[in-house]
């Protein structure tokens, strides 16, 4: 990811030439992501999901069709916070997500396993967003794991 970003024409070009070359595509049909826009529910159809490799373990790239067509394709950088979501985990994560303009979603990456993951999601708009977003998501994952450890320790010491 240390490539010169000036050589890429667009975010799509950057993602295709640098990010997806080491990613593994998750096969199968993917459920859409629901989003509220001006108090109206909209759905984003997820075209592809890629599991990123190497330093980006637990990261995914979601490629989605836009509901309004501008731009046609949306890219979301996603980190898995928990492999099994719950209301408690959502409440532990929601304040940080709001402060950093991130979204929490409960989504089944692998629908056949019937597990609903808790995911932290950041839309990528510009090439420069990629490395910034990775750092924000990595930092939050560490903070979230520390909160869970603290919570577990409080329960065990009761």
Question: Can you walk me through this structure?
Answer:
With 158 residues, this protein is an alpha+beta fold. It has one domain (5-156): 2-Layer Sandwich (Yope Regulator, Chain: A), CATH 3.30.1460. 33% of the residues lie in helices and 32% in strands. It has 3 helices and 7 strands, in the order αβββββαββα. It has helices at residues 11-19, 87-99, 127-156; strands spanning 24-26, 33-37, 40-51, 59-65, 73-82, 103-107, 117-124. Strands 1, 2, 3, 4, 5, 6 and 7 form a 7-stranded antiparallel β-sheet that branches. Helix 2 (87-99) crosses helix 3 (127-156).
Question: Any chance you could write out the topology, listing elements then pairs?
Answer:
Layout: H1 11-19, E1 24-26, E2 33-37, E3 40-51, E4 59-65, E5 73-82, H2 87-99, E6 103-107, E7 117-124, H3 127-156
Antiparallel strand pairs: 1-3, 2-3, 3-4, 4-5, 5-7, 6-7
Question: Would you summarize the structure shown here?
Answer:
With 158 residues, the chain is α+β, with helices and mostly antiparallel strands.
Count structural domains: 1
N-to-C span:
46 Å
Number of helices: 3
CATH class (first level) name: Alpha Beta
- The proportion of residues forming helix, as a percent range, comes to 25-40%
Q: β content, as a range? A: 25-35%
- The global form is globular
State the CATH architecture.
2-Layer Sandwich
Keyphrases for this structure?
158 residues; alpha+beta; Yope Regulator, Chain: A; seven-stranded antiparallel beta sheet; 3 helices; 33% helix
């Amino acid at each position: 990811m240390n490539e010169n970003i000036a050589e890429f024409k667009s975010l799509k070009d950057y993602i295709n030439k640098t990010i997806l070359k080491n990613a593994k595509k998750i096969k199968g049909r993917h459920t859409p992501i629901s989003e509220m826009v001006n108090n109206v529910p909209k759905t984003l159809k997820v075209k592809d999901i890629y599991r990123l490799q190497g330093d980006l373990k637990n990261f995914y790239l979601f490629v989605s069709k836009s509901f309004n067509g501008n731009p046609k394709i949306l890219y979301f950088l996603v980190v898995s916070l928990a492999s099994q979501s719950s209301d408690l985990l959502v409440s532990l994560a929601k304040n940080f997500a709001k402060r950093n303009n991130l979204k929490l979603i409960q989504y089944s990456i692998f629908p056949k396993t019937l597990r609903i993951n808790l995911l932290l999601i950041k839309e990528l708009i510009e090439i420069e967003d990629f490395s910034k977003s990775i750092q924000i998501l990595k930092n939050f994952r560490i903070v979230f794991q520390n909160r869970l450890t603290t919570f577990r320790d409080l329960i065990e010491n009761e």
